[in-house]
Design goal:
Length: 700
């Protein structure tokens, strides 16, 4: 039995649907009308009531919504005031869910659901729904309902509205017009749906009335609406090629972490089985970028980052991040970019971006005025906001702009960025782990130069990273041979695969290449890996055991004690231990972070400190080396030398101290000549010392 689709019968159908399914909601709505003015209906309720009406809604939404809203006006409400609610239908069936890049002409004028990330939003602005015009001759007021995006003006002073019938000039009267709020947003395809390296496609969406102001950039949403076209102009000419836009009826937020990864009961069984394997750590680490040779510790760090620690709210209300930030600094060609790309494909909700990206939003977010806003301010999300609840992989961080550099502090630690500009005052979430890579300014990493000078990042920003790895590319015959063999063999495996595909009859068809392939295949396939991580993130919240706390505490105290004259460690590094231990426990889905996890955390932090945080003279760990580039013993020496210079300069006639005098005096203090000259060079570079004339110095 096909339903009748005349206006009147549709209205009747809707009316009886509302009365049968949504009576309580409508009664409630009428009492808080007009503050609340939308009835939210589940698609499947309509489907249950009358499947053909549900289908009609998808194929002819304009007529369906018009008749439904007419029906809503006829309902008997328990109030005297007029109630004219909007209808908003959500939870559309899968066949109405269309990927942004798959939208075609056949979808025009139908009701569809599009999923993605909010990239930009404009300010909310009032829009004329019914415009009132005053006649310049007789003063009568005529009203015109505004269906188009451009203003429709009266052609004459309409007699049926009490006017004089003449064609004259009109004045727009906003107080007598009906205005509704409107907002334009841009939806961008989620990175998960993208095939390697493709640029995400975007869709312009119009929101009206009570659904404006509901989304912020970075939100993951499903927007249900009618796909329409918009005239494109080139100068004053209209083009025949139209652009697609969506007129939104409802917005569904998808906030739960990792909910795009579906885990069924069989998956769960497999995940639990995996977690009980004694070599689960090796399995996980060897599943990260298997085509990249070596870097076992760096890959282990990436594993901790993928699982992450536990974000928590302290009893005093402060929030502490669980995300582990990692930075790779090093020589060109050591596969930094390759690792970042691999992680961005492996981890759900992750974004790969370059620090030098020219997007106005930069790495965090910005308010801009662009074409999209048509004169309005636009709030646009950058990589860290788009990667909320995922991993932001930022390559070439050394090339980022100074605005980004300063915005990152807040984004990394508070995991929020605030934008206040023009009418926009927003705070956007950046609850993501940051995986950064940086190339040293001078091309190669110089182990004896402070890191922050080499990669153009201030020490305060560097201290936000839980782990920093320096990757140097030094010739080492044994390692080079293994690396070369790995790369060459993986190319060979690829070559064999190609020829088999293109020429199945070739002699390579029968060759046994399983050993070659095995070396570069992950132990756990990427799909299963993602499920494992998502499962751990959703279900595993480890608590530290007393022994683990004790182990970390002892290590911390011992380390500070071992290097007495330096300040080796701050509480910030202590938090890194906690996060890594939590991640380590999550990797085997354990309810507690125990001794073994504490040991893993200590081991990896120690590895990192040994590489970048060690005072090369005393062998003691020294966080000052990372923070300021000068170890504590160097600082000590500089102080002593500065004192000598001050004294000599004061005693001299021209207010300067001579090099020979300085080194002689310093030698009495137990500092040899080389070290003195080195320290003087350093201080000159830092601007704490001036060379007035050759070899004559004065303090600044
Ligand atoms: P970076 O970003 O550090 O400058 P890339 O990621 O662009 O370096 O790497 C350069 C090339 O060298 C890539 O094709 C990468 O696969 C290869 N490569 C470098 N180191 C390794 C390694 N350890 N194992 C496998 N391939 C490597
Ligand atoms: Mg690179």
């Amino acid at each position: 039995m096909a339903i009748s689709t005349t206006i009147e019968s549709l209205i009747e159908l809707w009316e009886s649907f509302f009365k049968n399914y949504y009576k309580t909601e409508l009664d409630g709505l009428s009492l808080s009308y007009p503050e609340k003015r939308s009835l939210i209906v589940d698609y499947w309720d309509v489907d249950q009531y009358e499947p053909e009406l549900a289908e009609f809604l998808l194929s002819s939404p304009n007529k369906a919504f018009y008749t439904a809203e007419e029906a809503l006006k006829r309902i008997d409400y328990p109030t005297d005031k007029p109630v004219h609610p909007h209808l908003r239908v959500k939870n559309l069936p899968d066949h109405a869910k269309i990927g942004i890049r798959n939208l075609r002409s056949i979808h025009l004028a139908s009701y569809v659901a599009c999923e993605g990330l909010i990239k930009k939003i404009t300010e909310v602005r009032p829009k004329l729904q019914t415009a009132a015009f005053q006649c310049g001759r007789c003063g009568a007021i005529v009203k015109i309902s505004q269906e188009e995006r451009t203003l429709t003006e009266p052609v004459e002073c309409y007699e049926d509205q009490g006017g004089c019938g003449r064609q004259t000039t009109f004045k727009l009267l906003t107080p007598s017009s009906i205005l509704i709020d409107s907002q334009k947003v841009e939806l961008q395809e989620s990175p998960e749906g993208l095939r390697g390296g493709a640029q995400p496609e975007r869709l312009t969406i119009y929101l009206e009335d009570d659904i404006v102001g509901e989304v912020v950039p970075g939100d993951r949403v499903k927007i249900n609406g009618i796909l329409m076209t918009e005239i494109r102009r080139s100068g004053s000419m209209k083009l025949t090629e139209l652009s697609k836009v969506m007129f939104a009826y409802s917005v569904e937020q998808q906030q739960q972490a990792f909910d795009e990864v579906v885990i069924n009961p069989e998956d769960e069984e497999e995940i639990l089985r995996l977690s009980r394997q004694p070599d689960i750590y090796d399995k996980i680490v060897s599943s990260i970028a298997p085509s990249i040779y070596g870097m076992a510790t760096e890959k282990e760090a990436l594993a901790y980052q993928l699982f992450g620690g536990v974000a928590k709210e302290m009893p005093d209300g402060t929030r502490v991040r669980g995300d582990i930030h990692i930075l790779f600094v090093g020589d060109p060609g050591v596969a930094k970019s390759q690792l970042l790309r691999y992680v961005s494909r492996l981890a759900p909700r992750s974004i790969y971006a370059s620090g030098r990206s020219s997007s106005a939003a930069g790495l965090t977010a910005a308010a801009v005025k662009d074409e999209f806003g048509e004169g309005r301010w636009v709030l646009e999300a950058g990589a860290l906001v788009l990667a909320d609840q995922g991993i932001a992989c930022i390559d070439e961080m050394d090339k980022m702009s100074s605005q980004d550099r300063s915005a990152l502090h807040e984004a990394m630690e508070q995991q929020e960025v605030t934008v206040t500009k023009a009418g926009i005052n927003a705070s956007l979430k950046t609850r993501c782990a940051l995986l950064g890579a940086a190339n040293p300014k001078l091309g190669r990493f110089d182990e004896f130069m402070p890191m922050h000078e080499q990669i153009n990042m201030p020490p305060a920003l560097l201290s936000r990273f839980d782990l920093i790895f320096s990757l140097t590319d030094k010739p080492d015959p044994k390692f080079d041979k293994m690396l070369a063999s790995h790369i060459l063999n993986s190319h060979r495996a690829g070559q064999i695969k190609e020829i088999r595909k293109k020429n199945p009859g070739s002699e390579y068809a029968s060759i046994d290449d399983s050993a070659l392939v095995k070396a570069i295949s992950p132990e756990i396939a990427p799909e299963a890996f993602r499920k494992y991580v998502a499962y751990a993130k959703r279900n595993c919240f480890p608590v530290m055991t007393e022994e683990a706390i004790e182990a970390i505490m002892n290590y911390y105290v011992d380390l500070r004690n071992r290097s007495k004259d330096s300040i080796p460690f701050t509480a910030r590094q202590l938090e890194a231990f906690v996060r890594i231990a939590e991640a380590s426990a999550k990797m085997r889905l354990a309810p507690a972070a125990d001794m073994s996890d504490a040991r893993r955390a200590i081991k990896i932090v120690e590895y990192y400190l040994q590489k970048v945080g060690m005072d090369r003279e005393t062998g003691a760990f020294d966080i000052d080396v990372i923070a300021t580039g000068i170890s504590h013993s160097q600082q000590d020496r500089m102080q002593k030398i500065t004192a000598i210079i001050k004294r000599l300069a004061k005693e001299s006639e021209d207010g300067t101290a001579q090099m020979d005098d300085i080194t002689r005096e310093a030698e009495i203090d137990g500092i040899n000549r080389d070290k003195t000259e080195d320290a003087i060079q350093q201080m000159r570079k830092r601007g704490t010392l001036m060379e007035k004339r050759t070899n004559r110095f004065s303090p600044v």
